[in-house]
Specification:
single chain; alpha+beta; Dipeptide-binding Protein, domain 3; 13-stranded mixed sheet; 4-stranded antiparallel sheet; about 25% helix
Length: about 600
């Protein structure tokens, strides 16, 4: 039990299989999970919009020339209050915990809001095979070596050491830990040094990239009750600010960490620039917008509804900057290949049929229906030239492919038109709207559509677990990095059928209607990718695997939900919207006030 802990160094052997985490989660202002890929219901879907947006690089350009002065406070509003400030206990995976945590916590890595790449935080560099930080051993295990930044210290002046990483590992491996332990449980040996931490994983995996997003100070936490003592107060900070107070129902206030180790990369200035940051909790979106318009709040990330964005745009002449970006939540059309498919007339097993449907989809129109942004990649939703770009809106080609599928199936589709049963959730307006579009789009190529929409509890439970739908629609959340890409690809693992595995589609699984060369090639690439630790090689393999999925129209990604951030740019500089789970406070140490 965690209880009152003094976690003592020892060697422990773990042989647990590292399995990608699959978590059902609602989506409000952002994805409130640290898992690489998350299954999203739709009960709290927010309508978003596709508009011309200020990119992160543009935003950075507009703010970097402003004077870099010290002092002042920035007020950030959110519609949620955290259940805890501790990210490693129950409730710690709430998105607002991460938003606040970016200001006072630190870990091995973070996600750059401009490039969306993983970048080192407490480490001098991200370990890789190229720099000697990752080594595959003769016995098939993998050793990872962390080199901790020389200047990295806690806010009380104590250096951050390998013992802190070791202590954090002990907390995660404790049976009382409630979070995802994938990859951590495959660690079979480790050694901590003054500025190093080296650990060995039982088998090669790119999963090491996402380990230790938060590190806990051993000297301050050892001997305390971890589950109880660190919820409404915080340990010494490794981030730019230090916890000062939490006034329940109103705000959390953080103040400058005088011992913060990071400097401004452009000027060499000691960070952070601000004296303090305040996170205000305002439950209603309307109240958040009002407080923002009254300049009581400096920064917001509201639900990206069309009317909200339009109202914020109206404030641009007064000094507001609105940044809208494609988020990591990707919505997709998909097919069921298992024997429980509710449509006895399904043609899903035929590649030409799936391709016909892909060519019949107007991604731009579908995205606009619900205010989302069209996408062509499932590994990088923000990419505009992904492998699904090959499927433009081509009705003639769709009809030709449909005829080809009917011929291969030995059916007279003129006498008996193809039929699909389309299922998604009925709880919010967005997906029923998509369902009505599907019915019209399918009719345009001669396919009859029966809509069978379900309550999200049923759809994300029995329907997906048992594979009883025919053609469906839902969303996943993708995470940057090789580990995130691999986890997304694992969703199509032919050797991992749901409900115990990750492949809800049952594409290529033992009971699947599809057993072809594409399945075999994908399986082979996935097997190699699992044992690849070099990031560039891993990215290349991921691209090959994604291309296989696209060429065979295994799924058809349609749109990414937008994320929006707004800042009074005449008062606050440095804000760059991060569309990933890192959130909009990812670079808060560089924010500064312009009106001092």
């Amino acid at each position: 039990m965690l209880g009152s802990v003094e976690w003592r160094p020892m060697r422990r052997i773990f042989a647990a299989l590292c399995v990608a985490s699959l978590i059902a989660s609602a989506c409000g202002n952002g994805a409130d999970s640290t898992a690489s890929t998350v299954l999203l219901p739709t009960a709290t879907d927010a309508t978003t919009t596709t508009i011309d947006s200020t990119t992160a690089s543009d935003a950075a350009t507009t703010t970097t020339e402003a004077p870099r002065t010290y002092g002042g406070t920035v007020v950030i509003a959110d519609d949620q209050e955290p259940p805890t400030l501790n990210p490693l206990v129950e409730g710690g995976d709430n998105f607002i915990v991460s938003i606040i945590g970016q200001a006072h916590l630190a870990g091995a890595f973070e996600i750059d809001g401009t490039t969306l790449d993983l970048i080192p935080e407490l480490l001098a560099d991200l370990p890789s095979a190229g720099n000697g930080g990752v080594v595959v051993n003769e016995d098939g295990s993998q050793t990872v070596r962390y080199q901790i930044r020389d200047g990295a210290t806690w806010s009380d002046g104590v250096p951050i050491t390998g013992a802190d990483f070791e202590f954090t590992l002990g907390l995660i491996l404790d049976p009382a830990y409630v979070g995802d332990t994938a990859t951590y449980t495959d660690i079979v040996d480790w050694e901590a040094g003054p500025k190093t931490f080296e650990f060995t994983i039982a088998r090669p995996t790119v999963g090491f990239e996402m380990l230790f997003p938060v590190v806990v100070p051993k000297h301050a936490v050892a001997g305390t009750d971890f589950n109880k003592d660190w919820n409404d107060k915080m340990w010494p900070a490794a981030g730019p600010f230090v916890f000062e107070e939490w006034q329940s129902g109103d705000h959390v206030r953080l103040v400058r960490n005088e011992n913060y180790w990071k400097q401004d990369a452009e000027t060499g200035d000691q960070l952070p620039y601000l004296d303090s940051v305040v996170f205000r909790f305002i439950p209603e979106t309307e109240s958040i917008i009002y407080s923002f318009t009254q300049r009581e709040v400096d920064v917001i990330q509201p639900p990206p509804a069309l009317d909200t964005i339009e109202r914020l745009r109206d404030l641009e002449s007064a000094g507001v900057e609105v940044q809208v970006r494609a988020g990591p939540v990707w919505e997709h059309l998909n097919f069921q290949f298992g024997p429980a498919n509710r449509n006895e007339d399904s043609l899903n097993q035929y590649t030409a049929f799936r391709q016909a449907i892909a060519y019949a989809m107007e991604r731009d129109v579908m995205a606009a229906l619900v205010g989302w942004q069209p996408i062509t990649s499932i590994l990088d939703p923000g990419r505009t030239d992904g492998p699904w770009e090959q499927y433009g809106y081509e009705i003639d080609r769709a009809e030709t492919l449909l005829a080809e599928a009917c011929t291969v199936a030995g059916r007279d589709c003129g006498a008996q038109p193809p039929r699909v049963v389309f299922s998604t959730t009925s709880n919010a307006d967005e997906r029923p709207r998509i369902a009505e579009y599907m019915k019209t789009a399918m009719a345009a190529i001669g396919v009859e559509t029966e809509l069978q929409l379900e309550d999200s509890g049923l759809f994300f439970g029995e329907t997906l677990d048992l594979g009883t739908w025919d053609v469906g629609w839902w969303a996943w959340v993708a995470t940057p990095g090789s580990a995130g890409s691999l986890t997304t690809l694992e969703l199509f693992d032919p050797d991992s059928p749901a409900p115990d595995g990750t492949n809800h589609y049952r594409w290529g699984t033992p009971d699947s209607s599809v057993q072809d060369d594409a399945v075999a090639r994908f399986r082979d690439v996935l097997a190699v990718a699992r044992e690849t630790v070099d990031p560039e090689e891993s990215a290349g393999l991921a691209a090959v695997a994604e291309q296989i999925l696209a060429d065979n129209a295994v799924v058809v990604p349609i749109a990414a939900r937008s994320v929006v951030g707004a800042v009074w740019a005449d008062a606050v500089a440095g804000f760059v919207m991060n569309p990933t789970q890192a959130g909009h406070t990812w670079n808060i140490e560089t924010w500064r006030r312009l009106d001092l």
